[in-house]
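ingest -> validate -> predict -> emit
validate: passed (alphabet ok, no gaps, 345 aa)
predict: started
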Amino acid sequence: MSVTSNSVSLLVHQLDLFGALNISARLNALPESTAYQIDFSGMSWVEPFGMLFFASQLRRFRAAHVAARFKAIGYEHHGYPAHMGFFQAFGLDYGKDPGEAKGSLQYIPITAIVIRELESEERKLGYVGHDIRDVLEHRCERLVQVLTRGGSGDLRNTLIYSLREIFRNVVEHSRADTIWFSAQHWPETGLVELSILDEGIGIRASLSRNPYLKINDDSDALRFAVLPGISGIAYKGGPKQRNDPWANSGYGLFMTSQLCAAGGTFVICSGDECMIMEHNKQEFAKCNFRGTALRLTISTDAIKSLSATLEMLRKRGNAIVRELKMNANITASMSARMLSKDFNT
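emit:
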């Protein structure tokens, strides 16, 4: 950060996971000023999560400083984020709009689904009279094609179902008005990344409606969120659920987190905490995000082997749900223990 005359300047270096968390913390720590300058001249690397996350933070910061002047510099030579819709996503009139680029099996540009427009899309696709989740599944099919490199079979179907539940939860529980997402495949590293973001009430507020959960902070809420059978409204005496046992049980986030943790990494950020899952490890980093942001990465080398783990994960999920039902009150310390427990012994 630097202050020149009456303007406060922020220099952006890179927008990977930790770069986005770091620059967002610096943005939110800027002093009050009548003018702000965002300098992209030194930006060296960007990823879908970083673009979605920092664009969201910039939108929020600008909304909180409506009387201040904002200026961006050094952005003109960044063709990739411009093509992906990053600059337009936070209000800079440069590059393509979110969703304008056609995308391919290699990438999906930053895309915004305005939730109130889903019903009109439902009619357009001929889903009138069906559940709006059919529209979401149509969107998820394209995302999974990138995530699994055009794969088919059980892994593809499981991820479509899981992502549909994640999108459905945003629509039904987050109180957000828009779902943001983007994806990218890097052939040189063999990694695929899919990121999804909403600016709703966040995980803690959503799960706090469940009276059987003891939630002390945002890290507790994130630990609960990746367990199967946990939902802010799926509890005895809560609102009636649809007759869809797989989706209603909360398996979507469990399956995606477990699959990505086995073949890459899974990241979920909400409130003050960001949880990073890899193999059986859970690590936390600080963040300040009003809403929920997900980052799913999978190694293309692991895609085939992940298909073989699906049945084991389903059995593990069912066993966890059975154990949870035997507890009148559920604590966050149970999450890591259950996720690492060998239910086959």
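Confidence is low (pLDDT under 50) at residues 237-248.
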